[in-house]
Predict the structure of STE20-related kinase adapter protein alpha.
Amino acid sequence: MVPNSVEKQKGGSKKDAAGAATSTNTTTTTTTSNTAAASAPEQDNQADGANLGPESASYYQRIQRLDTDCFMACDKLTKKQTFALRIYQLEQLDDIDLKLLINDLKLCKQLKHPNIIRNLYNFIHQDQLWVVQPFCSFTSADRLSKPFGLPELAIAFIIKDTLMALEYLHLHNLIHRSVRASHILIKADGRCQLTGLKYSVNTIADGKKLFYMHQYPQKARPNIYWFSPEILEQNLFGYNYKSDIYSLGITCCELANGVVPFSDLQPTEMLLDKLTGNAPRLLDSTCQELVQLKPNEMSTEDRDKYFVFRGRQFSSAFHNFTSGLCLNFDPHKRPEARKLLGHNFIKQLKKSPATNLLDFLDPSLLNHHCDQS
């Protein structure tokens, strides 16, 4: 199994690790902390092995860095196929990072759904784990939403695909625990895929289904602004899959407003806000808090956002979906993913002349050819 191979590699048994890792195809998450960056694209000089196949490091040519440990890459021979290449320095992962990585590898091997990111190949190269994924040409939804947010129908397309992924995960007894815009990747055809599975937890333990979980996610700090109140509270009542629905509500605000809710607060302030029932909302002309602001006292950036927000109005269905349902403080009053797919906010897509998320995305943002860099 691949998880065993990773553990062996860290322990120094490189031969065993390589043999095990190349025997399966799994995936990793799009965000991993405490990982070292791989070498720059121009340092790839392994052309002699370009014909060794896709489970060889020499098969790939790195084009540009996408993130700390992620590159856009293509096949070195034809330069026609584009991939997202993640490179993990195994010796530099601590025990918790390693555990999270293994969880991600296992889940992405088991799960099969068009709205969940999949893996193409993974293999050991020297002291590194290389994970090859399909390249999502529009990258992540959070980058597209900055600085003013996305149109409502574009958000509806993104949330619909995310709900379908969550419905699948929940049916398979998994709580994602890391739903956020940066974990929603957008492919060239406009389809959205959920990633970030390393934080997921299985509600089946020792053959029994647990209706409430009590374990706090490890390495959780990057995700706390999206966490539900019940996860943060860590009380005897615990949390269940409805916590993902709350995170989805935060994501709706993130996509609409172009900023992460609570990100201007210290963690303790955010915790107090959430535990007292305060929740973010969609910023538009119906927001009374905006009326009370004085634009002439704002910075140029904030003033631009102010006039954008004051000049638009989201539908009552979108407000109800976000504030009334997903961000409801009481998890019992949050609908499950399947029911939210039937909400008017999602159903409006059937009446819209837009047939795809691509109708709302700037084609200049598309980056899908290796020879573009």
